[in-house]
């Protein structure tokens, strides 16, 4: 069985992010087709949406559904689907750089969530500037600003956490860093 | 909920208020649960038992932010699918199925970072219970030292509950844990609890570990090297016997000077009584019964404390589970498993902790067989009796090679006890289970660790305290009762003159009184039973009084002897003669009689506390009755054999 465990999506109680190994699924975005067990849940309204991220599958519940009741079925279906990577068909129209959007969303989640919380608890703050081709640009401010040690710590922290969700991340750069 | 700061007055461990949040600690044995418990409560724990069973219960309190919390240390378990009675308790408490034990409001799951992979299955089972849960990771320092890695924060994110690192024995992280506990109501809970299906659960655990960047610790290098020797079939067994030898050597040699001090203290005390208490009967009661009797037994406190200290140390360092592993093969001959060995080893201190330790055995048959065998192990209560009798039997100057003959006889008695215990276990196992159902034997070999001094001391103190309590209750009552029996009925001066005793001669008087006491009548009453063993009525009284607790034998003979010649009780015993009957005039303590007595004490179940604990552990009077009958009968037969053989050898 493919290892996976669910994590909540900040601000979206109806979504769960199932962390999976980075190389299991050959696609990202909204798949055009998913293997039968998962498709059945989409068909009967248990799930409203399935999205694939570089190291996760996000599932959104249909209206009137709840994780305690429907979660176990979603888990079992997802396990079956993960064992069949060929059953996942990529999106017809990739659109304009879905990778950048995914990276941007992932970085925003973390800055709104745990990493940002950590920065604020130390009297600092992080602003997300941009995400493009695997590079995330942020601006560190507050007490962090100007302290070289804090800067390195904060950058490493964001980088490490972000890489778990987005293994293709190349680096996090700080727009406010003094030229070296 | 009024979380004001004025309720500090009513703290204390006494009343358990219903609105005080209850926090329970769960985790596998050796995960460091007790360290966390001790650091949280600061040793203010109350020990007791769970209703209906004798599984020890630890409850303490602590305060944070002006509010009191009750914290309970549940018995260690590897899983919530219980196989032993201890584990059953944990599950029942978590499910709120135990009467008078409220379901906890919040849980602390204590996991050892070095065995996290195995522990996650347990964490999953606990999270599935749906109570507010915080995971406490211990031994993170050791994980790092052994080149392992764990991102504690990421682990918390993956589990969906708070995760805190705590190095219990150093106290790191305890402050943060207290603060976290204060906000237990708002702890995040997993949106979707971990799966119950074993395959899905494995996949879940695997994924959580990967997310937390877990790299398991290299095998502890020291542990690995030491285990290569200690678990070696030949070397390990040799080391085991050396450890056991050192164990008993330490107990006997190191305790001797300490015992001297205790003896000196009681000598001083009885001197005080003799000098200041002039009421004859009160002086007799205090001097003979209380100081002579109970004091005579308390002399053994240093030895007992040392014994418990060493057991706690061996346990804490991690040797005990190795010894159990080594002994598994030997125990298998008796049809038992290695864990039964730990119970039997504890019985060297006292059968009671031994019998209580059988709780770790999952099979009911193994438990009963071990319980039936435990009273045969040479417990510390036999020690005073053996020391006294061997002192009478063997001259201290006799040597066999480099060893003193006294010590060898003592070792022989220990060996006799151990061998008999194994045989008894084998017999009861055969009788008990003909189907031969094999229970899984799962034992962890924890890495060798320096135990937290506090935990060792607490374990030692808990055990020693029960011995001291026994002295102050059972033994005290028996000795005082015996003193009454030995001094009643009161003899008038006229009666004594009629019997040709000078009422002015104190020694003659007390000798006459004892000889015509109720105790003497009682001793003569049972004479037909013990005559073949060569006991006279005074020994009979000693044996009968020892029925409640073995040490009383020493106290009784001490009282009898002191009545005849208070200055030299030891010589009195040596030269004691039969007062009447066919052997009148001959010495009582000849080699055959002493041998018979020694063997009698080796086998007989002369300990009401043991009978009581058997009743509590098995829940029926059947097993204590069986144990009492078979042990007493065996004792008589073996004592008769010992006497006959010693006589034939020309003793």
Automatic annotation (TrEMBL), chain B:
Q: Which UniProt keywords apply?
A: Membrane, Transmembrane, Transmembrane helix
Q: Name one Pfam family in it.
A: FeoB_C
Give the matching SUPFAM superfamilies: P-loop containing nucleoside triphosphate hydrolases (SSF52540)
Source domain of life is: Bacteria
| Signal peptide boundaries | none
Q: Where is each FeoB-type G domain found?
A: 20-187
Q: What's this protein's name? A: Ferrous iron transport protein B
Task: Say which species the protein is native to.
Answer: Microbispora corallina
């Amino acid at each position: 069985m493919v290892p996976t465990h669910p994590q909540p999506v900040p601000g979206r109680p109806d979504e769960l992010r199932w962390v999976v190994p980075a190389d299991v699924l050959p696609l990202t975005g909204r798949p055009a087709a998913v293997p039968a067990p998962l498709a059945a849940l989409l068909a009967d309204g248990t799930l409203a949406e399935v999205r694939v991220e570089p190291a996760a599958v996000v599932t959104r519940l249909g209206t009137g559904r709840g994780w305690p009741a429907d979660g176990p079925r979603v888990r079992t279906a997802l396990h079956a689907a993960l064992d069949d990577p060929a059953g996942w068909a990529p999106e017809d129209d990739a659109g304009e750089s879905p990778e950048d959007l995914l990276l941007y969303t992932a970085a925003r989640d973390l800055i709104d969530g745990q990493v940002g919380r950590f920065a604020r608890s130390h009297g600092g703050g992080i602003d997300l500037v941009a995400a493009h081709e695997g590079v995330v640009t942020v601006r560190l401010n507050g007490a962090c600003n100007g302290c070289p040690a804090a800067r390195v710590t904060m950058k490493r922290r964001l980088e490490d956490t972000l890489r778990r969700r987005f293994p293709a991340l190349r680096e996090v750069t700080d727009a406010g860093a003094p030229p070296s | 909920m009024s979380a004001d700061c004025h309720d500090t007055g009513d703290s204390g461990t006494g009343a358990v208020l219903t609105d005080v949040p209850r926090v329970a600690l769960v985790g596998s044995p050796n995960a460091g649960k007790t360290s966390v418990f001790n650091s949280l409560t600061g040793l203010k724990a109350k020990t007791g038992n769970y209703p209906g069973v004798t599984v020890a219960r630890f409850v303490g309190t602590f305060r944070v932010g002006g509010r009191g919390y009750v914290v309970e240390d549940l018995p260690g378990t590897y899983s919530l699918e219980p196989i032993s009675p201890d584990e059953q308790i944990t599950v029942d408490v978590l499910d709120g199925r135990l009467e008078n034990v409220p379901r906890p409001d919040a849980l602390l799951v204590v996991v050892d970072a070095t065995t996290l992979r195995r522990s996650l299955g347990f964490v999953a089972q606990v999270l599935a219970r749906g109570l507010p849960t915080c995971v406490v990771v211990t031994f993170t320092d050791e994980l790092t030292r052994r080149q392992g890695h764990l991102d504690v924060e990421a682990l918390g994110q993956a589990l969906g509950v708070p995760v805190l690192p705590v190095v219990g024995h150093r106290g790191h992280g305890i402050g943060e844990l207290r603060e976290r506990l204060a906000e237990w109501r708002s702890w995040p809970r997993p949106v979707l609890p971990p799966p119950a299906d074993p395959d899905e659960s494995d996949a879940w655990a695997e994924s959580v570990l990967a997310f937390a960047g877990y790299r398991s610790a290299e095998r502890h290098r020291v542990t690995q090297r030491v285990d290569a020797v200690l678990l070696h079939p030949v070397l390990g067994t040799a080391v085991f016997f050396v450890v056991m030898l050192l164990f008993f050597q330490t107990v006997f040699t190191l305790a001797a000077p300490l015992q001297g001090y205790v003896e000196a203290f009681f000598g001083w005390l009885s001197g005080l009584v003799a000098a200041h208490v002039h009421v004859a009967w009160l002086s007799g009661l205090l001097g003979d019964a209380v100081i002579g009797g109970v004091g005579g037994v308390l002399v053994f406190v240093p030895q007992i404390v040392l014994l418990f200290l060493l057991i706690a140390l061996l346990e804490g360092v991690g040797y005990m589970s190795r010894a159990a592993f080594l002994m598994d093969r030997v125990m298998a001959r008796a049809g038992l498993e290695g864990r039964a060995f730990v119970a039997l080893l504890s019985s060297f201190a006292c059968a009671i902790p031994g019998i209580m330790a059988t709780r770790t055995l999952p099979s009911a048959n193994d438990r009963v067989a071990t319980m039936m065998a435990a009273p045969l192990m040479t417990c510390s209560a036999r020690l005073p009796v053996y020391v006294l009798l061997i002192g009478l039997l063997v001259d201290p100057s006799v040597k066999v090679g480099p060893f003193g003959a006294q010590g060898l006889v003592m070792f022989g008695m220990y060996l006799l006890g151990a061998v008999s215990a194994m045989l008894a276990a084998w017999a009861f196992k055969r009788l008990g289970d003909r189907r031969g159902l094999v229970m899984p034997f799962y034992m962890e070999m924890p890495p060798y660790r320096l135990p937290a001094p506090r935990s060792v001391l607490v374990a030692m103190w808990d055990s020693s305290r029960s011995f001291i309590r026994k002295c102050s209750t059972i033994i005290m009552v028996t000795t005082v009762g015996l003193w009454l029996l030995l001094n009643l009925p009161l003899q008038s001066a006229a009666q004594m003159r009629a019997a040709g005793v000078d009422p002015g001669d104190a020694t003659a008087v007390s000798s006459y009184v004892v000889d015509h006491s109720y105790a003497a009548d009682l001793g003569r009453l049972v004479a037909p039973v013990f005559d073949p063993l060569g006991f006279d009525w005074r020994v009979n009284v000693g044996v009968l009084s020892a029925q409640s607790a073995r040490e009383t034998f020493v106290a009784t003979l001490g009282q009898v002897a002191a009545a005849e010649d208070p200055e030299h009780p030891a010589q009195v015993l040596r030269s004691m003669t039969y007062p009447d009957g066919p052997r009148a005039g001959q010495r009582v303590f000849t080699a055959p009689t002493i041998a018979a007595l020694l063997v009698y004490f080796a086998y007989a179940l002369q300990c009401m506390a043991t009978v009581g604990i058997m009743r509590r552990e098995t829940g029926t009077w059947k097993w204590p009755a069986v144990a009492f009958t078979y042990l007493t009968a065996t004792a008589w037969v073996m004592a008769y054999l010992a006497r006959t053989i010693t006589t034939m050898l020309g003793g």
